[in-house]
Write a structure and sequence with these properties.
Blueprint lengths: L3 H11 L6 H4 L6 H6 L22 H9 L24 H10 L12 H4 L22 E16 L2 E9 L11 E3 L5 E2 L2 H4 L2 H4 L11 E2 L12 E3 L20 H6 L7 E12 L3 H10 L1 H4 L8 H44 L7 H85 L2 H5 L2 E4 L2 E4 L2 E3 L9 H22 L7 E3 L6 E3 L5 E3 L9 H25 L9 E2 L2 E2 L2 E2 L5 H25 L2
Antiparallel strand pairs: 1-2, 1-3, 1-7, 3-4, 5-7, 6-7, 8-9, 9-10, 11-12, 12-13, 14-15, 15-16
Helix pairs in contact: 15-16, 15-17, 16-17
Family: Belongs to the beclin family.
GO cellular component, one term: phosphatidylinositol 3-kinase complex, class III, type II
Protein name: Atg6 BARA domain-containing protein
């Protein structure tokens, strides 16, 4: 009976329902919104949007705090291999400092916050500055660090046939064949721990192949560190724990049979161009490290949590006072009953033995219930762990979905831009196809009784004597036009040949005799000039016949026959008739110009 009360006190204390923190926190206002909107910019309790003060810490420093891996800037980077940093890979302590620098508020913006309270990813002077901030992006050199783990596997011949093999996944110690220090990912190969978007872009890598880090302590020529178990390695830095490090003599004296595991560190350097998109991808690679820390809370949720913690503390203090009071009374009553029963001779009382037996059975039942309770708690803990993993997976899925949606928007905008430019290019092409270059180069029109080509009058009247320099220039333009038409249509004149030389053009007859198609008004050169005009008119007639042969429906307005056009002599004699004949000839040339533009665009 003396041992009954102290033994019953333990289950009484255990069965007291504790006031948990979860019960004191009010439920979320919108669980769906909180789940979908949960990010670094929302309250992790209610999902409300937060606004932050300007933070001078650059995105490069934030990622460095998550990874504890430094970046090399091109101005200070050299191709020579540098010593690898052995700083711990944990980032919860460092990353928590970012939360202290941020000012959370559900409504309103701080007057010190630039851009109306919006917080940019990178500071203006940091490596994350983008082109939109007015500065050109600064590229940096990042190190991809991967641990490779192997275990000795015994063969059929025992230790003699033992071989080193990649480690299978061990959930207890979170050990796998490869582990990425940059993003905290386990995998069976490097392709599983390093994103494919980096491996498939050789231009991003500064070093072509993975290099072995031989600067670690107690490593051999191939960079391997041998130990008896992976528990001797620090899970953060990956190197040996301080209490495991031995001197060289102890390492040499250690048995080779103890060295059943080994690991080494390989690294490869790549380039980050410094744009907002590249830093966002780097931050997305840190999602597994980033999701380990909770996002900030808003002011209302913090007050609620603090109030709940105060009530919980007060309840615990009250329970403690009650326990102390009960123990004090229990000890006093126990001493009095012990003194009382010392003088009673009921040790052999059957009723007492029955009660003790009942007490033993009850204690055994309590032990079995405790064992069952521990098993249930273990299963519950596994369920909670699975739920947390599922929540992290959902968060990562939403982050990747947001990034893919952003890329989809960029692709849609680019496609619309290409479509608009295609419409513009098609319209410009149609206008250029309808554009006739010959009409601009050889503009044939009239100025009263005179026919003109490029503004040069062709003809001469007593009332309006045109200078022979202008007439010669107009004839040179006509010869050049007819020569281009023949070249474009790919035909030769039947008897004559044109030699375009501007104001001093010539015509070669079938007998290889040249005639000048220019004059100064003198009587001595008139005969040769008239013969050149007749030969030129024959060339115009040859071009017209070729056009009507290729296009039978085409009919010229004037008939050319024996040095005359529309029954007007082309030879210089009567100024009025000669001027009208030249005007008809220019009309004939304009028809040929229209035909060549349509037939040979």
């Amino acid at each position: 009976m003396t041992s009954l009360l102290p033994q019953q006190l333990t289950p009484i204390v255990k069965n007291v329902a504790p006031t948990t923190l979860t019960a004191m926190i009010p439920p979320s206002r919108s669980a769906g919104v909180a789940m979908e909107g949960k990010s670094l910019f929302t309250c992790h309790q209610c999902g409300a949007l937060l606004k932050f003060k300007f933070n001078p810490v650059s995105i490069e420093e934030k990622i460095t705090r998550l990874r504890s891996l430094e970046f090399d800037h091109p101005s200070t980077y050299s191709p020579v291999d540098e010593s690898m940093s052995s700083a711990p890979m944990g980032a919860d302590d460092n990353a928590s400092q970012d939360d202290e620098n941020e000012d959370q508020s559900v409504g309103g913006s701080s007057p010190n916050t630039p851009n109306g309270g919006k917080n940019s990813l990178g500071s203006p002077g940091g490596a994350g500055a983008s082109v939109g901030d007015g500065t050109s992006p600064t590229p940096v050199i990042a190190r991809e660090v991967v641990w490779e783990n192997q275990r000795m596997v015994l063969g059929s011949g025992g230790k003699k046939s033992a071989q080193w093999a990649p480690v299978a996944f061990e959930a207890a110690g979170l050990i796998a064949a490869f582990y990425s220090c940059n993003r905290g990912v386990l995998g069976h190969s490097i392709n599983e721990v390093v994103p494919a978007r980096l491996l498939n872009k050789p231009h991003l890598w500064v070093t072509k192949e993975w290099e072995i880090d031989r600067t670690l302590a107690h490593c051999d020529d191939e960079g391997w560190i041998y130990e008896t178990s992976f528990e001797n390695f620090d899970p953060l830095s990956g190197e040996l724990r301080e209490h495991v490090v031995r001197d060289d003599a102890a390492i040499e004296n250690s048995s080779s049979a103890e060295k059943v595991v080994r690991r080494r560190r390989v690294f490869r350097k790549r380039r980050v161009d410094g744009t907002d998109l590249s830093w966002f991808q780097e931050l997305l690679d840190c999602s597994s490290l980033l999701l380990k820390k909770k996002t900030p809370s808003c002011h209302d949720c913090e007050e609620t949590i603090l109030h709940g913690l105060e009530e919980t503390l007060q309840g615990i203090v009250n329970d403690r006072e009650q326990y102390e009071t009960f123990l004090a009374q229990f000890l006093v009553n126990h001493d009095e009953e012990s003194i009382k029963y010392e003088f009673d001779g009921y040790e052999d009382d059957p009723e007492l033995r029955a009660i003790q037996e009942e007490e033993r059975l009850l204690l055994e039942e309590i032990e079995s219930l405790d064992l069952e309770t521990r098993q249930v708690q273990s299963k519950r803990q596994e369920l909670w762990s699975t739920g947390k993993d599922l929540e992290q997976l959902v968060r990562g899925t939403f982050a990747e979905g947001a990034f893919l949606q952003h890329l989809l928007g960029l692709s849609r905008d680019e496609r619309q831009s290409v479509g608009v430019y295609s419409v513009y290019a098609s319209d410009l092409l149609r206008r250029l196809q309808r554009y006739n270059v010959f009409n601009d180069v050889f503009h044939i029109w009239h100025d009263g009784l005179f026919g003109t080509i490029n503004g040069l009058r062709l003809g001469r009247l007593p009332s309006k004597p045109v200078e022979w320099q202008e007439i010669n220039a107009a004839l040179g333009q006509a010869v050049l036009l007819l020569a281009i038409i023949a070249e474009r249509a790919n035909f030769d004149f039947i008897r004559n040949k044109l030699i375009p030389r501007g104001s001093f053009s010539r015509v070669v007859s079938a007998h290889n005799k040249e005639y000048s198609l220019y004059s100064d008004g003198g009587m001595f050169r008139r005969r040769g000039f008239n013969q050149a005009m007749i030969l030129f008119l024959e060339c115009v007639d040859d071009a017209g016949r070729r056009a009507m042969h290729e296009e039978p429906s085409m009919k010229f307005p004037y008939k050319i026959q024996r040095g005359k056009i529309n029954d007007l002599p082309i030879s210089l004699g009567n100024d009025e008739q000669w001027t009208k004949a030249l005007k008809c000839m220019l009309t004939h040339l304009k028809w040929l110009l229209a035909w060549i533009s349509k037939r040979y665009p």
